[in-house]
Amino acid sequence: MSDRAETDSRKLLRRLRDTLREPGAGQERLDRITHLIADSMRCEVCSIYLFRDDDTLELCATEGLKKESVHKTRMRLGEGLVGRVAKTLTPINTANAPAEKGFRYMPETGEEIFSSFLGVPIQRLGGKLGVLVVQSKKKRLFSDDELYAIEVVAMVLAEMTELGAFVGEGEALSARHTGPVMFRGSTGQEGSAEGRVFLHEPRVVITNPVADDPKAEIKRLKAAVIELRKSVDDLVSTAEGEDKDQLQVMEAYRMFANSRGWIARIEEDIQRGLSAEAAVEKEQSTTRARLEQVPDPYLRDRLHDLDDLSNRLLRILTGQGADTGAAMPDDPVLVARNIGPGELLEYGRKLRGVVLEEGSVGSHAAIVARALAIPLVIHAERITTEALNGDRILVDGDQGIAHLRPEANVAKAFREKIAMQTQAMQRYTGLRDLPATALCGTTIALHMNAGLMADLPSLVGSGAEGVGLFRTELQFLIRSHVPKRGELATLYARVMDAAQGRRVAFRTLDIGSDKVLPYMKRPDEPNPAMGWRAIRVGLDKPGVLKMQVQALMRAARGRPLTVMFPFVAEFDEFRQARAHVLEEWEREKSRGHQMPATLEIGAMLETPSLAYAPRGFFEMTDFVSIGGNDLKQFFFAADRENEQVRRRYDTLNASFLSFIGHIAARCAETGTALSFCGEDAGRPVEALCLAAMGLRTLSMRPAAIGPVKHLIRRVSLTELRGVMDAELDRGAVTLRPAVMDWLSRQDV
After folding, report:
1. 265/279 Cα distance (integer angstroms)
2. What stretches of 265-359 adopt beta strand conformation (E)?
3. Which stretch, 157-161, 254-258, 280-284, 660-664, has highest mean pLDDT?
4. For residues 122-132, average pLDDT
5. Dihedral, CA atoms, 687, 692, 697, 699, nearest 10 degrees?
6. Residue 481 per-residue DSSP state
7. What percent of the chain has pLDDT over 90?
8. CA-to-CA distance for 467 and 608, rounded, in angstroms?
9. Kind of pairing, strands 443-450 and 697-700?
10. 378 and 440 housed in the same domain
11. Same domain for 604 and 691?
12. Cα–Cα distance, 449 to 463 (Å, whole number)
């Protein structure tokens, strides 16, 4: 880069800063800026396009085009060269714009006489704000120095747009972070909540994007980088005693922090006239836009490293730590890109709800949210860039929707919905001590799912008869190392104490797929949901399985113990796992430990293959628990994490219910206890149909027990089974219409 280019760039930015300091409305400022840029760049045209909504750009200011086209010329995202820049977040530099692919002629602007075109995105950390364009009559490509200068200017414009420097009339100039926004994501945990936003990691606000003294800024940068690298070194040193693969990940993270290219590019931005923090953010935005277009998943994962390091560096430079001093409101709704189980547990039950940009229905955060009975919306794209601390927010976990700064009529309707749900829950309270006995006399045992001590108070309050599934992996997921046997024994004993004599079915460690331990090597698997997970890991690493079984036996202390193995696909897997348990039983007994009063060993049926296991399996196992979430995924070959397909296949599909009936019949032949555990067990209509097909025990989230019990007690399961059998005989594809029609005629 030439000294001349550096000087010109700094001059332009200083003029830009001075212009922005002058009083005036948003439109006046934009007009002055386009004139300034065109003059400095020696171009006939400079135009600024801003988004008026998510899909539409609007010409908001211009020097050189017809003034009457301002606020009248609009284009869709991806339309024309300007729309292409906005969509791809990459510059377009061409000497002959009309000949460029996708060019759109807009006669109202008078731009047909201008050949050369340079457009760059106005963006902030992946957030699309608009497009900055310069044009000239002469056919020429803009130089690298000119491109760089315009990108730097666009960075400053992005920061000033964020700070509200261009507020005026019309949608495109409306104040940011003020209007209502609806985010349509996915359901992570059902339920509804109203509260105020509390950002998990508030974004850094840059108030001084332009600096006069590059040497001083580079000195600030170098000091901050030294501090950053020291903090990364400390992280690596804490990982040295852990798994070597975790250490390798941390070393790669450190290499990124020590990247000379990364720092050199930031220093180059500073030489152009940006402040140190603005230069860091510009490099972050540019790299982020580039990596988001890369198909390689490994490289895309590096985006998280970049974001984390950049944010750490920005917080050092600005002095804005993770704790900004913002007080948590009385009704907090946590908003974050993503969050780990340990961090979410630290917030605990104070939260009214959680909204994440990322996450999945099977993620650690989702598991904890279910345990804490907190509504969770996932895949709410862009909410962290739109939400501010203290904003009013409505979380509809049932629909997977979040309303930020809702309009009065939306808030009113939402509150009415919550009031109706509260009234319904109060009605269910009266059923707590009553059995789930249908009008035909059939009684269904209703159990709850759990995974944390925080779940256990719900055992009594919900009326659950026991814990049908206790997820033991959460204690492994929230630690940076393998828990000790004594720690687990203490926890399991507390769980049994809290159950007050009720049955607790402990599922052995279910890791793999979407549940990855931070200290365990993650296999490079193209399809982890069908790979090395659950009991397969336990059998390949029997030391962990045996340690967990020992902890459970010592926790029982003369009480009944129930153990079940996850993801058993064939008889031999169960036989081997059971042999390990019996071996530990004899070993613990020989050492003089107090043994459990009784021992039940069961299997979770989550793969269709186990339904066709030899009769010997059903005779050997003490019980079978259908893991409905995984079984449904494999039965329909529909990834439960894929929103395009997971809702495509209905639980009341005739084939699936017939399969459930087959499993119930096989268990009945051998007198094997059978239960169903999963999301569908907590949905009243689905639960009713499962019970009609022969399931006598259902395990669900605590909040679902009341509604399920209410419906079961109001109908005859025998009559419903007759309706369902008639539909199956008729060859119906789905039983839902017939079931809903029958329910409409019942007193429910």
Report:
1. 9
2. 332-336, 353-356
3. 660-664
4. 83
5. -10
6. S
7. 42
8. 24
9. parallel
10. no
11. yes
12. 13
Render pLDDT for 376-395 as a digit per residue (tens, 0 to 9).
999 898 898 888 889 999 99
Residues 152 and 198 in one domain: no
User: Contact 333/354 with Cβ under 8 angstroms?
Assistant: yes
- 232 found inside a domain: yes
The residue written with tokens 């409905």 in the block is 628
pLDDT tens-digit series, residues 662-675: 999 999 999 999 99
- d(CA 653, CA 631) in angstroms, rounded, equals 14
Residue 6, pLDDT > 60, answer no
Based on the domain organization, do 395 and 441 belong to the same domain? no
Q: Are residues 554 and 671 in the same domain?
A: yes
Q: Is 616 buried (19+), middle (13-18) or exposed (0-12) by CB count in 10 A?
A: exposed
| Euclidean distance between CA atoms 143 and 11, whole angstroms | 18
- Among 702, 216, 277, 147, residue whose Cα is nearest residue 464: 702
CATH code at 122? 3.30.450.40
Hunting for tokens 């935005």 — which residue is that?
285
Q: Which of helix, strand or coil describes residue 342? A: helix
Q: How confident is the model at residue 526 (pLDDT cuts 50, 70, 90)?
A: low
Contact of 660 with 624, CB cutoff 8 Å = no
pLDDT in tens, 634-663: 999 888 777 677 778 899 999 999 999 999
C-alpha 167/C-alpha 169 separation (Å) is 7
Residues 405 and 417: their CA atoms lie apart, in Å, by 18
Q: Three-class SS string for 616-665?
A: HHHHHCCEEEEEHHHHHHHHCCCCCCCHHHHCCCCCCEHHHHHHHHHHHH
Domains of the chain: total: 4
729-735: long-range contacts, CB 8 A cutoff, minimum separation 24: 731/654, 732/654, 733/653, 733/654, 734/650, 734/652, 734/653, 734/654, 735/652, 735/653, 735/654, 735/657, 735/689
pLDDT digits (tens, 9 = 90+) for 529-556: 677 777 888 888 888 889 999 999 999 9
d(CA 335, CA 324) in angstroms, rounded, equals 15
Average pLDDT over the chain, rounded to an integer: 85
The model's pTM is 0.70
- DSSP string covering 230-254: HHHHHHHHHHTTS-HHHHHHHHHHH
By residue range, what is the domain housing residue 409? Answer: 181-202+328-421
Task: Classify the phi-psi angles of 325: left when phi > 0, otherwise alpha if psi is within -120 to 50, otherwise beta.
Answer: left
Q: Does the structure show a pLDDT above 50 at 243?
A: no
Q: How far apart are CA 733 and CA 718, in angstroms?
A: 21
